[in-house]
Recover the amino acids of this structure.
């Protein structure tokens, strides 16, 4: 009996050792995989940064190498120039990631960083044209942009619709997250989808917070703001010692004699563009353009036209040099609408720029609401005043 008991004890110990060993192997694999992911991103970032301004074929070849060599995707699950039928024509998307059964999962559109086309409209049309339709896609340009659209790409129109952007910088946490999501050895479409859904919800919550802040600001700085604060103070005092022993009328009379003033915090908080998409930000009425008006040229008229470049001449020169500029339509309710202005026929001059602005579709539809127009060769920062 003693022999049997000792034998069972040894067996039990062996099982425990095997279980511990098993979990040790799993943990070691996870740690090793995470370490490799962190090591992979600097290599990926360097390669993308080196090829983003070369030729499109070099950029695409570099991305193919990243997908198959650095992220470990089998070539059988990465299709380059994948054909898709769009109406009566056939198009070729740059890359398509597929599952083991060759079903489409993620579209990747590639554009050189200097390209005037951001590729987002193409990406959306490909996502919508595939079978099954997709709601996740990437644009790789000057950054990696991750898009998630429940309507299968139909609502995507610009880079500002991205839910996540990853700069080509070796030490950025966003890059390590990208490798974690897209490394083939640990890839899970469900994990990627969960990340996108959560990310979009976080952006919405932050945007809701900004909108709520603006509503509070509008309330407090309106004509009834001080009265509102006094009423709130009276209500709060009526619930705590020793003030709750006094009647509401006494508390109200006491507060009425106080001089209460409400002041804005003059500090500006710049929006983090990796956390707030530009489209959502611009739609928020609390935003202002971060420009130094003292250094701007202002063409005064019924609707002032403001040039942060310093002069009309300098804007036109930069506009032709880079092939595009930006128009910010500032409405009477302080809402700001951004429009990218493409240089399509090199016809813009200082003498006809005003006529060109007035011919814009947005101007014609909203000219009664537009208070001023900001015309810049560079994309401007947006700030919020609390």
């Amino acid at each position: 009996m003693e022999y049997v008991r000792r034998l069972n004890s040894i067996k039990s110990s062996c099982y425990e050792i095997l279980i511990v060993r098993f979990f040790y192997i799993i943990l070691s694999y996870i740690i090793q995989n995470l370490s490799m992911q962190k090591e992979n991103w600097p290599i990926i970032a360097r390669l993308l940064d080196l090829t983003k301004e070369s030729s499109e074929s070099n950029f695409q070849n570099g991305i193919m190498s990243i997908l198959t060599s650095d992220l470990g995707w089998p070539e059988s699950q990465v299709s380059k120039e994948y054909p898709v039928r769009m109406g009566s024509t056939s198009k070729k998307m740059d890359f398509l990631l597929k599952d083991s059964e060759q079903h489409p999962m993620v579209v990747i559109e590639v554009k050189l960083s200097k390209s005037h086309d951001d590729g987002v409209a193409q990406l959306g049309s490909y996502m919508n044209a595939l079978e099954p339709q997709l709601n996740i896609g990437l644009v790789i340009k000057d950054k990696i942009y991750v898009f998630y659209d429940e309507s299968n790409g139909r609502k995507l129109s610009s880079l500002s619709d991205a839910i996540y952007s990853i700069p080509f910088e070796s030490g950025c946490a966003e890059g390590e997250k990208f490798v974690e999501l897209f490394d083939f050895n640990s890839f899970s479409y469900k994990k990627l989808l969960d990340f996108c859904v959560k990310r979009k919800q976080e952006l919405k919550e932050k945007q809701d917070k900004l909108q709520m802040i603006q509503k509070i600001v509008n309330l407090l700085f309106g004509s009834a703001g001080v009265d509102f604060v006094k009423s709130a103070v009276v209500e709060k005092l009526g619930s705590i010692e020793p003030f709750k022993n006094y009647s509401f009328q006494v508390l109200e009379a006491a507060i009425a004699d106080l001089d209460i003033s409400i002041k804005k915090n003059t500090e500006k908080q710049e929006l983090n563009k990796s956390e707030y998409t530009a489209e959502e930000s611009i739609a928020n009425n609390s935003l202002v353009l971060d420009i130094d008006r003292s250094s701007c040229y202002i063409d005064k008229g019924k609707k002032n036209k403001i040039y942060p470049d310093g002069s009309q001449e300098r804007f036109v020169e930069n506009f032709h040099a880079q092939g595009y500029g930006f128009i910010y339509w500032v409405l009477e309710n302080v809402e700001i609408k951004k429009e990218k202005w493409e240089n399509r026929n090199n016809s813009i001059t200082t003498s006809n720029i005003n006529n060109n602005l007035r011919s814009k579709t947005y101007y014609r539809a909203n000219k009664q609401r537009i208070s001023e127009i900001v015309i810049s060769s560079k994309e401007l920062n947006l700030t919020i005043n609390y």
About this structure: The chain has three domains: 49-187, 201-256, 268-385. Residues 201-256 form one domain.
